[in-house]
Amino acid sequence: MTAPLLEAADLRKTFDLRAGWFSTLLGGKADQVRAVDGIDLRLIPGEVLAVVGESGSGKTTTGRLITLQDRPTGGTLRFEGRDVAGLSGAALKAYRRRVQMIFQNPFEALDPRHRVIDAVAEPLAIHGIGTAAERRARAEAALADVDLRPIARFADRHPADLSGGQLQRVAIARALILEPALIVADEPVSMLDVSVRSGVMTLMTELRRRTGVAYLTITHDLAVARYMSDRTAVMYLGAIVEEGPTEDLIAGAAHPYTRLLLQAVPEHRSGARRARIRLPGDAQSVKAIPDGCRFHPRCPMARDVCRTTEPPKVAVGPGRWAACHFAGEVLATGVAA
Amino acid sequence: MALLRLPDGAPRTPAIVISLLVVALAVVVAVAAPWLGLPDPDAMEAIPYQPPNARHWFGTDNFGRDVLSRIVWGTRLALIVAVVSSLASSILGIVLGSISGYFGGWVDGVMSRTFDVFLLIPTFFLVLLIVALFGQGLQYTMIAIALTTWPRSARIMRSQVLSLKSRVYVQSSRAAGASHPWVLTRHVVPNGLAPIVTDGTILMGFAILTEAGLSFLGLGDQNAVSWGRMIFEGQRQLRIAPWLSIFPGLALLLLVAALNLLGDGLNQAMNPQLRRQSIRARGKPPVDLGPPKAEDAGAPILDVRGLKMEYRLPKGAIRAVDGVDFTLPRGGSLGVVGESGCGKSSLGAALLQVMAPNAVYTAGDVSVAGRPILKDGQVVRAGSRDAVMDIRWTRVSIIFQSAMNALNPVLTVRQQLMEAYRLHRPAEDEAAAVARIEALFDLIGIPHRRMTAYPHELSGGMRQRVMIALSLLHEPDLVIADEPTTALDVLIQDQILGEIDALRRRLGLGLILISHDMGAVAETCDRVAVMYAGEIVEIAPTSVIFGDPRHPYTRALMGALPTVTGPKRPLETLAGEPFTPTGDIVGCRFAPRCAMATDRCRAEAPAPVAVAADHLARCHYARDDARIPA
User: What angle do CA B86, B90, B96 make, to 5 degrees?
Assistant: First the structure.
């Protein structure tokens, strides 16, 4: 078994909602939001894990915890065997050299006043690598790697002159230039048009093959997860409800939530319209995570046990599990609406 | 000025040009003062009290000194005061303001209170104190001005930094390992400087005025030539020698006014939002076709012929909708898809004449149920009223992309629906309005008790459903929905699309669904129009568009779509960049990105080719089966 690159166990992040001074005066307690509520993640070198969820599922916070932009309030986070949750100073800087990030909105991810070549070379400058000339040479090579050619056409441009797809390629070049072991990509293609989206996805996959970098790809789109990842973890209200090899999980999900997510993806291929499933109630909020199974208020299959008992992780296949009392049933027959 | 990166063409407004000229003249005069061949400003050589004459253009003063020369030398002092004190003030403000804003928390609490305290100290009071303690001198005046004005810059910088520090590129730099000072000095502060610079010019004017005021009071530097001192000395002889105070007064007025104007102008130039508001394009004049015709029950609900609409920008016109034709039968549904910038949203806005102020029609006819609302690119009017007013919201309604934020936050949902209802039907009583609204809430699946909620109490999905309710309020025949579900989660999106679809079937509603999401369109619409560079490049029944696309662009779009069903196949990618329809266009707009483009494509723009009776594709080779890959 390969030694894991990244290992999170029971990782938690709780935010305090600041109570108003008046309610504090009356003895009110600050509300807590459990944005990430005890998740386990494991990533081996060169692997791509997709974290899929809707807004409020905690997937973005998970990314921020792994890049240490936010600090976990519980659990452990280990990288290459060492606990990194409390890193600071030079050790934190060294960690950030190994773990890079790609952000969702390419139009805002680059400083509008800096030229493309400087944006790509900046991480090298931050870490004091090479001379200015060497950094420029490496940045040019990085631009070539992301197919921004001819380089002379892009190097001295400002971000405002580039399209969304080109900007995201610049962001990828910037993330790769330090040769990190892991890139956390937060919705890397969701802001891009369909026609350029596939290009960026293909590029990221190709770069991983060439450099051996691992990705943790955060997305709301199962179709993107399918084309970019080896394994998928589905998050709902701060917890992972199902995890497994992406292709298996998409072919037959074992958690009702995953099933519903898959059914909700509009299908352009067959002419036939799908039967739409109407969920009871609106999306729940992490401010009030339900007791028992956190999905039960919206689950079409919920029974009494779901309202009272939090489901354990049920293994449903090699490397696959789902946090559902009826995972085997869902896997076999789907969601009975 | 590279620091400011003024946008092209921005600073050429008359205000900026004139004020720049005045300021430049002042700088030249001040620098060149010793070489202008003027008499020594302190030499008392001439005859006193000479009115302006050929030798002394601005006359001489009570000691026989040349007034013009004194004004010129006074310019030096004014500019030194302006530059030094506003620079000192700005630097102090930038440093303290950015620290306060960037680190936040208690640091910010303590520091911003300090700014407030300093702002309360009147400049003159502080100067009097400093003069009393240290004696008179230009340096003390400048220190006093800087000490009382820096909190202005500090507060501007603080608010700039507060918003800049959460920018993605700042986070990105931090995530790459950059330290706080690195991020502050390279990304935060440089991007926040623009308003400080514009405020700096206004500050300069203020500094000059303050110095003049102090000199007028006799508190300035006694040895320097100052405009304020000249005015002070001249006012005693105002009746016998008005030129003594009028000329320095004019110089003061001109320079300060120019600096203020420059500040405003720069602000305008560097704030694109302010600039865009000022562009208003004028299209063809409206045409009056007399009282509206009776509705033609047999006519399609929407008929669009040769519609052209363009945005007028400083650099030229962009033809966002460039010759669009289609017909929508009653109860029909059309999906409009394409990349961002293809003109699909512009088309939606152009149909109902709700465009940006810099957009104009250049050609085309639009009629709703047989009644023209646009003829030959001219807005149709009846008397003093645009014909579109009679149908907008009542016959045809529109749901915008950002509709979720279009609700008024201080009114409950029910109040807003009531208002909208009674606006168009003032005669009906409240009971009828309530009944209609309750029926709508049933329709969109929101419980009645939620009607009294304020918009912020509803989730995004609920608010979007309220917007749908609002669009259905007057039982329209047609709804134009521009990305109605784009900001929503998949499950909610699915429900809302399902609701729109069900309503459409139940009410016989026509629908135009503008979306980048092929899946959403495929499931909701009977027909699909694919737009590229302002044109519809292919239009056909949904099953044909997805099953037998004939335009290479449509095929590329289909091939690039990831899917969660069926076998996983490699995705196609589309090279190149979208085409911007501007200037003279030769050949097919898609040719630069088309893998199959021929010389003919590059030379000749394709007309729509009829593949079948209800299938058009704008490609020379649309009917050439040999060229269509299986």
Answer: 150
| Chain B touched by A199 (CB under 8 Å) | yes
Chain A interface disruption, residue of B3, B458, B489, most A CBs within 10 A: B489
In a domain, A243, yes or no: no
Residues of A in contact with B562 (CB under 8 A): 197-198, 201, 221, 223-224, 226-227
Q: Is-contact A141 A176, C-beta < 8 A?
A: no
Residue B79 has pLDDT above 50, yes or no: yes
Query: Count of A–B CB contacts within 8 Å?
Result: 178
In a domain, B533, yes or no: no
Same domain, A147 and A88: yes
- The CATH code of the domain that includes A45 is 3.40.50.300
Residue B321 is predicted with a pLDDT of 95
Give a yes or no: residue B536 inside a domain.
no
ipTM attached to this prediction = 0.86
**A261 in contact with B, Cβ within 8 Å:** yes
Interface of A with B in 30-69 (CB under 8 A): 54-55, 67, 69
Print the domain residue range for A294: 252-266+276-337
Q: Which residues 156-185 in chain A show a CB within 8 A of chain B?
A: 158, 163-164, 166, 171, 174-175, 178
**Model pTM greater than 0.80?**
yes
Residue ranges with strand state E in B387-486: 396-399, 478-482
Q: Are residues A210 and A261 in the same domain?
A: no
Could you give the angle at which helices A194-211 and B552-559 cross, rounded to 10 degrees? Answer: 50
Distance of CA B246 to the CA centre of its chain: 43
User: How much is the mean pLDDT over chain A?
Assistant: 89
Q: Is A266 in contact with B495 (Cβ distance < 8 A)?
A: no
Q: Tell me what percent of the residues of chain B surpass a pLDDT of 90.
A: 33
A44, part of any domain: yes
Query: What domain range is B603 assigned to?
Result: 548-563+570-627
SS3 content of chain A, % helix, strand, coil (to 5): 40, 20, 40
d(CA B63, CA A145): 78
Higher pLDDT pick, B330 / B493? B330
Residue B257 to residue B621: CA distance in whole angstroms:
65
Q: Distance (Å, rounded) from C-alpha B481 to C-alpha A284?
A: 27
Handedness of CA A136, A138, A143, A147 (dihedral sign): positive
DSSP alpha helix (H) spans, chain A = 21-25, 59-66, 89-98, 116-126, 132-145, 151-155, 164-176, 194-211, 222-228, 246-251, 256-264, 304-308, 327-333
**A209-218, B43-52, B103-112, B616-625: which has the minimum mean pLDDT?**
B43-52
Spatial distance between the Cα atoms of A65 and A13, rounded to a whole number of angstroms:
8
CB spacing of B566 vs A269 below 8 angstroms: yes
On whether residue B291 sits in a domain, the answer given is yes
Boundary of a domain, candidates B347, B366, B392? B392
Q: Does residue A130 lie within any of the structural domains?
A: yes
Q: Do B516 and A193 touch (CB under 8 A)?
A: yes
Question: A6-25 burial string, b = 16+ CB within 10 Å, else e?
Answer: bbbeebbbebeeeeeeeeee
User: CA separation (Å) from B114 to A64, B145, B611?
Assistant: 34, 17, 74
d(CA B229, CA B219): 9
- Asked whether residue A205 falls in the same domain as residue A257, the answer is no
The C-alpha angle with vertex B306 and arms to B302 and B309, in degrees rounded to 5, equals 95
Averaged pLDDT of chain B: 86
pLDDT digits (tens, 9 = 90+) for B45-55: 888 888 888 88
The pLDDT tens digits of the residues spanning A130-182 come to 999 999 999 999 999 998 888 888 999 999 888 888 999 999 999 999 999 99
Helices (H) then strands (E): counts for chain B: 21, 15
Q: How many domains does chain A have?
A: 2
pLDDT for residue A273 is more than 50: yes
- Same-domain pairing of A224 and A297: no
